[in-house]
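Annex B.
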Amino acid sequence: MWTTKTFLTKTKRGNIIKIVREHYLRDDLLCGSAACNTCPHRDDELVLDSDPESICALFDYPHYLILDTNVVLHQIDVLEEDALKNVIILQTVLEEVKHQNTAVFQRLLEVIGNKKRKFFSFVNEHHKDTYVERNPGEKPNDRNDRAIRRASAWYESHLSINSAVGKFPKIVLLTDDEINRKLAQEEGIVCCTVKDYVENITSAIGLVDKLSKNVIPETCAKDALYPAHLTPAQIHAGVRNGKLHQGTFRASRYNYLEGTAVVNGYEKPILLQGHIGINRAVDGDSVAIEIFPEEEWRRPSDIVLEDKADDPGDLLEEEAELLKTVKPVDKSDDEITPTGKVVGIIRRKWRQYCGVLMPSTFPGATRHLFTPAEKCIPRVRLETRQSHVLASQRILVALDSWPRNSRYPLGHFVRALGPIGDKDAENEVILLEHDVPHARFSEAVLACLPPDDWTIPEEEIKKRVDLRSECICSVDPPGCTDIDDALHAKPIPGQTADGLDKYEVGVHIADVTYFVRPNTALDKEAASRSTTVYLVDRRIDMVPELLSSNLCSLRGGEERLAFSCVWEIDENANVLSTKFHKSVIKSASAMTYEEAQIAIDDKSRKDKIVSSLRILNALAKKLKKKRLDNGALLLASPEIRFQVDSETHDPVEVEAKKIMDTNSMVEEFMLLANISVAQQLAADFPQCALLRRHPAPPPANFASFLKAAKQQGFELDVSTNKSFSASLDKAVIPGRPFFNTLLRIMATRCMQQAQYFSSGTKSFEEYYHYGLACPIYTHFTSPIRRYADVIVHRLLAACTGSDATHAELLDTRAAAALCDNLNYRHRQAQYAGRASVALNTHILFNERVEIDSAVVLSVKRNALQVLIPKYGLEGPLYLPSDKFNYNEEEHTQTCDDVVLKTFDELTVRLSLDSTNLQHRKLAIQLVKPHIPGFSYEGQEQAETMEVIEIDDDDVPEVKDAKKRKEKTVNKGNKKKSRK
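Protein DIS3 homolog: predicted structure tokens.
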């Protein structure tokens, strides 16, 4: 049988149309219970036990649980525990959860898919006895609650009539909705709150800790500390009339009472200060902001402020401490920033957070403060009866709500990760804190892989250009196993019309898309991960190892599938023609940068490999000169790599990365390939090409940087990237070789992030890549470790007729969502890599003290932010206010005749400060210049060190060919350390 659904809707033109849909109902849908003797179940469909054991003291009879939508949304951590079994999930609930929270929906599907858990999904919306129509004027939520009650009553009746056992299982409806619970009781349905049910489960230790705390309505908060948030309707009206602005809140890492939000129409981010100004926003939340009149705008605080109090209670006493340091400033001050306050939350972006419990001062206390590992996240109040066990553990906590009368948000315990300081637990913290998907690949994903002994089929070779006879080689960091690019070069007979010699140059990229087909489980997993993540001692692959380190890796002496970009280039590095094609290659050699450099420099070598490398090297130098002449920037970021122990994988020393001509050689041709592919895609797919842009930084970003450079005697011209590049080249101080590198490091921090985007969403002028000084750019050269490159390969294959296109490639909305995820995952992978460096530096300093060089990055009211080049780390060197005088106009700190300013070189003592187990950090003490009563006066001798210019993916792709894997080196057993 069927019924019809009729509803009215308005078109974009304002017309009202009537839509009628048929809704099919059945009477043969299975109930899933082994107690039923009527439904024609197969054995594998009998999910629910015939005589389920009651684990709750409130109900001494066998029963099944039915959950309402909010129980699933708010208590998913409880539902994932093995204690709860024999649960019925209604289709109504599944659809609501999918609509409201896709992450919870996926977690629920995993629970349902676990046969041991005995969760049964019942299609109540298509059963003739459980389907309910929506009444006129009835809210959708009320209709769904009614549908849940109807299904609960039907199950009770169905099992009582059709049970094959004498004592049939009953139904218990779990709901925290008081009105729904009251109506259910009136209809004779047994119901219970989740809290009451869980608190009466005696067999599950710690399950109560996982209960989510109920949200207290804004209007009901007693003793409110914070202003009430505006309602969604008020926010919408305010944004529409221009009184409010929408932005994403970003908390400061240096001052917990300060944050910013970027909004349209303002060049600088909006400054948000104090508890009231931030008004319970958490880093990443989408917020509504009211911007103050210009006379109330301020400059950002120049104080480093941490939330250190044991437990200040529900008070906001630090407000005055912050605001006394930030006074309204003259409008002519270039550091003045638009200032405002958060008036509403548009969308929370809360996740689970790692950290530790703070010790309670009261024995036996159940309420505790949780300190997150991420400094941008506020501390959290939670209840647990396991504090004696959890005190020594890294734990995972979820946020539930932030009432107006609570200084901190409320949350609940999710699970323990391992002992504090344990390396595996700390690495797990890094991956979770940076939202890095790192679970083992599922069976569905692994089922998409070819067999281990796969070889290239002959019919596939016939479809491709056979380049196995070409002298192709790869050049990569030592220990690299995921080799995704190789090159070749050879002279072409004859000359150009201008009498110049010609060369054929090819870049050959692993053809990952041959194995990763669209919309497969493997493809979806790769899209979700988006990038390979490189930690110091491990690698989190985007695709399974069979592909990343074997079948797709362009290893020496093995036949591999590739996508080739081949140019005809003259001796002045002018591109005469470009062609793209799928190919089969056999790399003659897989070399390290050092091996390739030695080969090039060895004049006695005349073989084909060396000849190819020398051509490539000579052309690369000319390509680089052209880029720099065109305005490309050479920036830098602090980065190091560790030598690790072959058995423990603990760091034993750090070493500087050696930069050779061969690094630049590979880089230049990867850049050229990316630009060539971008041009082709934009021509053939003007609306849906996946490109990468780097916006020019707004002038305001340079304000403090230019002031600091001026203190050193340099007037930098940042009006264009070309003038900026020229200014940086000239900013050299004889005798201070690191100064120019430091200048470039600080310049990097003035940049905006490079972004993936779909060509149809931007004008051509917005395609420009500021750092590379090129009008169009993309990522094509690393499909093993970047999903963006996979999409680019598919588009290019469609351009060349090598493969068919598919619908999602041409869907601009899907492309925009994909780019958002790519940008997010790329950024999180960078942060995870840096966190791994910090962790291993702390391990290195466990029983170590050093005296090293440092450089001042910025001057704060109560500290110097300093960089330790040897370790690539930065941190605050706190200055006592009774010894130092701060000049907020010049940003200097003075003590007697010692004046400290940005770019100053210092000598500092480094040791590990473990007094706060949550935020272990390098303790930085000043050694030189010597200030009596403040500087450290021990006897340690400074160690020699070498500092070199290095870069980072965080900046524009100035060194795009760089591999993150270069950070991990194990001299004793390189192959083992790569796993």
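The domain at 836-969 is CATH 2.40.50.140 (OB fold (Dihydrolipoamide Acetyltransferase, E2P)). The longest strand covers residues 559-570. Further annotation is deferred to the next reporting cycle.
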